[in-house]
Amino acid sequence: MIESYNNSKILVISHIADIDGMGSVILANKFYGVVDYILCDIGNLVDALKRIENKEYDIIYICDLSFVSDAVSYINDHSYLIEKIKHFDHHSSRIDDTTPSYANYVLELNGRKTSATELFYNYLISLNNEFKSKFYDEFVEGIRANDTWDMNGDFELGRKLASIHAILGSNPFIEMVLSLDANQGFVLPKVYLDFIKADQDKMDSYIKNANKNLCISEYNGMKIGVSITEQYRSVLGDEICKLNPEIAFILIINFNRMSCSLRTTRDDIHLGEICKEFHHDGGGHRKAAGFIIDSESIPKIKKYIDDYLE
Known about the structure:
The protein is built from twelve helices and 13 strands. The chain is an alpha/beta fold. A six-stranded mixed β-sheet has the order 8-9-10-11-13-12. It has a five-stranded mixed β-sheet with strand order 1-3-2-4-5. Strands 6-7 form a two-stranded antiparallel ribbon. Helix 5 runs antiparallel to helix 6.
């Protein structure tokens, strides 16, 4: 969990894992001048809300984080939060009969998959249309294309942003984007493009090694890949599925973040639903989903950890 407090009346709680989580924090800082923010995983949302119990915020934006059961219970027990929360998320597996009234899940806009950053950007434009610009349009589209793996969008910019985020980390990435000139189109300084080239070589080596150590296991009669790795989860998952077409999906176990990520290139599988079988709060998209590692999921993934070690 990463926290930044600046005596603002605006708080953004967003996903710590990727650039879609960073996008809303960056946009909020651009729009309001300065905001408080907390970056966390879905399983830490209640902890994040507990940390602000003694702070009085006018608005609490929750972005790219779904409301899992413990978060819903906590918010319902602290009903004053309901009036302050504005939610922006795009994970389809979270929509069911128990979805709370304050949850805002939107899966598509204009016939294409959307992202939390795009949803939040559109909201800010609705408050002040002057905020809309070529700079933000391009920045938001890069994040959206990367997060949804939309090769018809500006996936190349999104890939570059994701690489820089992986190199710098969350806070420096946020500061880097905030430092750019927003009066023109979105242009990355050359020094960061050099970083990306160096990181590409590192990523290629990392994925090659992960593929070499890939364990082939089984889930419900399907062959799956198992990898215990910590970096480049989306790119790694996509590449390994392409290199091993016999697997239905890859299970990426990350003990650093205490989470598991599932990735697939197939259209006939819904990983968001599969994740719910590992953990009641698991979920995500059809081709990208995840769940936390805790006492509920450990017995269900132990087989795959044992298979990998053997």
